[in-house]
Amino acid sequence: MTGWMDTHAHFTGADTVALLERAVAAGVTGVVAVGGSVESNEGARLAKRAMPERVKLALAWDRDMATKNPDMGMLDAETLPLSAIGETGLDYFHDASNRAAQCALFERQVALARERGLPVIVHCRESEEDVLAILKSAGSPALAGEGRLGVIHCFTGDRTFAERAIALGMMISFSGIVTFRNAEPLRKIAAAIPRERLLIETDCPYLTPVPLRGQPNEPAFVRHVGQCLAKQCGVSHEEMAAITTNNALRLFQ
Fold first, then answer.
1. Number of CB atoms found within 10 A of residue 233's CB
2. In three state form, how does the secondary structure of 86-145 look?
């Protein structure tokens, strides 16, 4: 049986090895360790060093760094292979006062991903038009043509946004939010995503899926997201694991 792959996890503490070991025991064959800040970038590096055969590394500066002029050179993974630039993106829900700075930082990192031939992991909240415009203008035409320009992670948008992102060459990833009781509209969108563009994630330590709400999230729990989507899409757990894991391996090759 194909194992699950968590395409978006943050690591920040001394429990990294234990989290990865529990993930392996739960049938998780791969994890994308994602950065975005000084702390989460270092946590992602630590996860990659702890289990290099199972962890793929993504480093970036997120929207919270927009006014801090972060050093792009700090995204050097040293001797560690980098699989993506992420997470980066735009968030006008939490702070719309610095849109220009957010866009400038995001554009720099999409261009960096293009230069390095890497996909980009994108956060988007109430900023769909600007995200799509920057991906179109600064993204890699070659990766877009392969359907692996990047991924809109923790997707909570509408179907039109999903379709437009897919048309640009993006994949769509669903987190534990899709398991929530009030998320039926989101589940219907997930079921409509082309199978070859569908991913799953935890976004741990946040957004713990049903039925484990109230606990800190971790990569071992990604199967609950996948099983929810399997039910919604009318496929077996094994088929959903194969679909989403193969997509992840293709994106983060």
1. 18
2. EEEEEECCCCCCCHHHHHHHHHHHHHHHHHHCCCEEEEEECCHHHHHHHHHHHCCHHHHH
For the stretch 130-174, pLDDT in tens is 999 999 999 999 999 999 999 999 999 999 999 999 999 999 999
Using an 8 Å Cβ cutoff, are 11 and 229 in contact?
A: no
Please determine, for residue 106, whether its predicted confidence score (pLDDT) is greater than 80: yes
CA distance 77 to 79: 6
Q: Which residue has the tokens 């009030």?
A: 182
Tell me how many domains the chain contains. 1
Q: How far apart are CA 3 and CA 133, in angstroms?
A: 35
Domain that holds residue 50: 4-251
Amino acid (1-letter code) at residue 248: A
Rounded to whole angstroms, the Cα distance separating 250 from 89 reads: 22
Looking at residue 235, which CATH number applies to its domain? 3.20.20.140
Quote the DSSP letter at residue 204: B
